Amino acid sequence: MFDPFHERNICKETLAAAASFHAENDREAGRRRIHLNSLLQRMPLKRNQLIAMTFDSKYSLLFKNWIASVDYHGISVRERCIVFPMDEESTEIAA
User: What SS3 state is found at 40?
Assistant: First the structure.
């Protein structure tokens, strides 16, 4: 596994950026956990099944095709699906 704090061939700026990212991640972990637990309690999950996905505008056609396919085949996924759009255009599509 890659550990940026023990790699010797990485420049100091990259190590500093990785350390900053890890520190920010640690600070925000509790807040994210609270929000995610709140969201999960409101979702009617079937056998604890949750679908989580990301996509950006380059893959919007595939996302739209997936939605059309599950709707066409009568597969109910919307109530147990969390979508994390990665750019502004995909945010509009996911809404």
Answer: helix
Query: How far apart are alpha carbons 95 and 93 in whole angstroms?
Result: 6
Q: Would you say the C-alpha torsion 6, 10, 12, 13 has a positive or negative sign?
A: negative
Provide the token pair at 30. 């509790």
What is the reported pTM?
0.53
Instruction: Please say whether the beta carbons of 33 and 22 come within 8 A.
Output: no
DSSP 10: S
Tell me the sheet residues that pair with 89: none
| pLDDT tens-digit map of 57-81 | 888 889 899 989 999 999 888 888 8
